[in-house]
Every structure is written in structure tokens, then in C-alpha cells.
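Whiteboard transcription, Tuesday session. T.W. wrote the C-alpha cells on the left side:
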């Protein structure tokens, strides 16, 4: 019991929150056998969560689950799972970090270069999104606790990612609301070059259309985006997850298969 208390009250581990057995060994100065025995008992009592072999997370006092009331740990767990491999928090999770939604965290989306299975005994939902090396840009670090930062796609890159994959961001209606919430924070000086660099014309078509429809940004930005997408004659659906129907809009080479009038009305009220 004394050793359990010592581990749970260790200042360095409390600050770290997510730690490996090697880190705990170094901080506590115990033998491997003693440490493993204490870790096992604390996991059994619900005071530690075993993320995967050799990686643990402290459960805050009063909670027996990381799924309620303590989302900061989720980001730290995602970071710990990445280890030394390149990663960044993306899509709907990036929207949450950028203030594009007030919805509670349900899943952590993490982009990475290689396919990998999520540990089967992981207690929180993490979804890996595999991307090529050429899409590993437009990143920044954000604080998720007072001591820890994680890599996340910056606001302008996040906008392109979610418009490329609306299914990983709650759909077009949720994206439109997110754009509306951060309309004063979007930097046109980054957005247009990003759009031209991003290898998805469908995402740029959706971006230009939404900016025009919702009066976001300047006419010059909308004009530049519109000129850029004219190189593509094919039509993309505004929301790929919605019904495969809707009117054709040649200006943006889109099929409008969602109720934009309703979305706009909801934003204005």
C-alpha cells in the first residue's frame, strides 16, 4: 500500500500523466519486479490505465474511466502512442483544439505516415489516419495541459483536411459551423497557398463554395480559389456522405446535395 501511494503521489509522474515503465523506474528508483507488482495492483484497482505493454496513464482521483471528464489525457496518450514516429492531431480533433466546435471529445483522430493497429486493450477511442509524406506540413504545437504540448494541424491546414474528408469532421453542416466560429482567425495569406499546395481539388472546391456562400473572407480570396479549381471539369459532391443527388453548380464544379439554406439560417440565428 505504501509503494502504491508513493507512485500515485510522485510529483514527476503526476506532471507526466502518461509514462513508460522505464520512466517510472528511473523516477522511483525501484527494481523492475517491485515496480511491475505495484503497476499491476494499481491497474486492478482502476487507478492506472494500461495503454499498451509498458505504457500507463494515471487516472485522476474520483474517476475510474478516462472516457469521462478528462479529455486532456487522450491527447497525451495519442502522443505517447506515436513515440518517436511523426504524427499530428487532425480532423475533428484538430477542430476541437482550434475552437471550431464545442462538442465533447468522442474520438482522437491522429494522422501518421504508416498504418498501425490501435492497441486492442486501449481504453479510449483513437483513429489513425494514414497520409503520405507529401501531406506532412502545415503543423504547429498546442498546449493540452500546463506542461505538455502536442502536434496538430494548424487552422488553415485543418480546414483543408476536413473539407477533403467531411466524414471525419461531422459532415458539411458541422464544418460550416466551425468555419463560422473561426472566420476572424483564418489567415488568407496562408489559406490560398495551402489550397494550391493541397492535393485535393475537391477540398478546394468545397472551401471556395462555403466561403462564398457564408460570406467568409474577402472577394479576392474567393476569386483566387475559383480560378484555381477551373483546371478541374469534374464535379464533386459537397458532402460525399450525403445522398448522391443535388443540383450541379458549374461555378465550383460541385453537386449541392445538402440544404445550404438551412445551414446558413442556423448560423445566422
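and on the right, the sequence the group agreed on:
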Amino acid at each position: 500500500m505504501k509503494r502504491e501511494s508513493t507512485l500515485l503521489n510522485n510529483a514527476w509522474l503526476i506532471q507526466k500523466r502518461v509514462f513508460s515503465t522505464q520512466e517510472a523506474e528511473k523516477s522511483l528508483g525501484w527494481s523492475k519486479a517491485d515496480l511491475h507488482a505495484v503497476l499491476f495492483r494499481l491497474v486492478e484497482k482502476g487507478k492506472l490505465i494500461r495503454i499498451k505493454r509498458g505504457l500507463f496513464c494515471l487516472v485522476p482521483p474520483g474517476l475510474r474511466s478516462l472516457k469521462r471528464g478528462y479529455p486532456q489525457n487522450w491527447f497525451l496518450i495519442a502522443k505517447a502512442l506515436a513515440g518517436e514516429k511523426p504524427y499530428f492531431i487532425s480532423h475533428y480533433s484538430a477542430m476541437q483544439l482550434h475552437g471550431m466546435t464545442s462538442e465533447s471529445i468522442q474520438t482522437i483522430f491522429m494522422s501518421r505516415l504508416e498504418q498501425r493497429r490501435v492497441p486492442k486493450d486501449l481504453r479510449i477511442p483513437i483513429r489513425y489516419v494514414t497520409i503520405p509524406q507529401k501531406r506532412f506540413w502545415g503543423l504547429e504545437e498546442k498546449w493540452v495541459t500546463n506542461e505538455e504540448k502536442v502536434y496538430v494541424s494548424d487552422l488553415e491546414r485543418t480546414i483543408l483536411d476536413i473539407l477533403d474528408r467531411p466524414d471525419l469532421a461531422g459532415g458539411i453542416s458541422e464544418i460550416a459551423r466551425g468555419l463560422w466560429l473561426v472566420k476572424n482567425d483564418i489567415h488568407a495569406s496562408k489559406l490560398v497557398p495551402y489550397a494550391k499546395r493541397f492535393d485535393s481539388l475537391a477540398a478546394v472546391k468545397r472551401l471556395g463554395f462555403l466561403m462564398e456562400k457564408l460570406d467568409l473572407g474577402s472577394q479576392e480570396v474567393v476569386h483566387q480559389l475559383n480560378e484555381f479549381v477551373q483546371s478541374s471539369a469534374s464535379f464533386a459532391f459537397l458532402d460525399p456522405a450525403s445522398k448522391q443527388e443535388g443540383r450541379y453548380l458549374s461555378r465550383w464544379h460541385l453537386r449541392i446535395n445538402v440544404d445550404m439554406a438551412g445551414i446558413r439560417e442556423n448560423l445566422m440565428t
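Someone added at the bottom: The chain has a mean pLDDT of 90.
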